[in-house]
Design goal:
The protein is α+β, with helices and mostly antiparallel strands and 214 residues long. The chain is 29% helix and 23% strand. The chain contains 5 helices and 7 strands; from the N terminus they run E-E-H-H-H-E-E-E-E-H-H-E. Strands 1, 2, 3, 4 and 7 form a 5-stranded antiparallel sheet that branches. Helix 1 runs antiparallel to helix 2 and helix 1 runs antiparallel to helix 3. The radius of gyration is 20 Å and the shape is globular.
C-alpha cells in the first residue's frame, strides 16, 4: 500500500476566510523478516498495511461547524483504527510465522468491515450533540470515511464530502460517492443538467448531516 499523509484541507477556502474542514488519518504498518530492507526497497513478502481516514466539513451557517467536524473526524478514526489493526494483524502467513490461532486475533471479513464503517459514521452524532448541548449551540458536519486494507477500500459518507478513485495507470479520476444535497436531487430528478449542477446557487445546501441542535 502506498499512502501519503501530507494534505491541505483549506487552501481553496482561505480567501473567503471560512474553513470548517478536518481530516484524520491512521496507518498501521506491520513487517517481519523480509519486508522493506535496509536500503528502503521492497522484497517479498512486502510489509502489510491498513489505513483509516475521515474527512469532515462543518456545515456552514451553524455556530459550531468547526467543532462538529473536528469531533466527527476524531471519533470516526478512533472507532475504525482497531478494525484496521485487526485486519492487518490477523494473517501472519505472508511472513511465514508459525503462530497458532489462539495468539493471532481473528480478522474481520468484508461484511464486518463494512458494518464497522457504518457504525463509526453513526457514532459522531452523539458526541457532536453532546458538545452542542454543553455549549448551547448547533453543530453539524458532513463526513466521508473508510478503511483501506488488502487492496480494498470500504467507505461511507453523509452529506457532500466526497471520495474519488484515482487511477494512475489509466490517467482517470472517478467520483465514487453521491452528494446528499439539493443539487444532486435536482439532477437525479432531471430538473437540471450536469453543467447547471456545477453552478447552481443552491449548491451549498445539504440534505444530510451529522449532529444536531442544542
Amino acid at each position: 500500500m502506498d499512502y501519503a499523509t501530507a494534505y491541505d484541507v483549506g487552501d481553496r477556502k482561505r480567501d473567503r476566510g471560512i474553513n470548517e474542514d478536518s481530516v484524520a488519518v491512521s496507518v498501521f504498518e506491520q513487517g517481519h523478516r523480509d519486508g522493506i530492507d535496509e536500503h528502503g526497497t521492497a522484497s517479498e513478502p512486502v510489509n502489510r498495511s491498513a489505513a483509516v481516514f475521515a474527512l469532515t466539513d462543518g456545515a456552514g451557517g451553524y455556530e459550531a461547524g468547526d467543532a462538529a467536524s473536528y469531533v466527527a473526524a476524531t471519533v470516526v478514526c478512533e472507532r475504525l483504527a482497531e478494525v484496521a489493526v485487526r485486519a492487518a494483524a490477523s494473517d501472519p502467513a505472508p511472513f511465514d510465522v508459525p503462530v497458532d490461532d489462539e495468539v493471532v486475533p481473528d480478522g474481520p471479513d468484508e461484511a464486518a468491515i463494512r458494518a464497522a464503517v457504518e457504525d463509526a459514521i453513526e457514532a459522531p452524532p452523539r458526541a457532536v450533540v453532546t458538545y452542542a448541548a454543553a455549549n448551547d449551540t448547533s453543530a453539524y458536519t458532513t463526513v466521508v470515511a473508510g478503511v483501506c486494507v488488502d487492496g480494498t477500500c470500504h467507505y461511507g459518507w453523509v452529506g457532500d464530502s466526497r471520495a474519488y478513485l484515482v487511477n494512475g495507470a489509466r490517467d482517470r479520476i472517478e467520483l465514487i460517492t453521491r452528494d446528499h444535497n439539493v443539487v444532486q436531487k435536482l439532477h437525479d430528478d432531471g430538473r437540471i443538467d450536469e453543467v447547471e449542477s456545477h453552478v447552481h446557487p443552491r449548491g451549498n445546501e445539504i440534505t444530510r448531516a451529522l449532529g444536531g441542535p442544542a
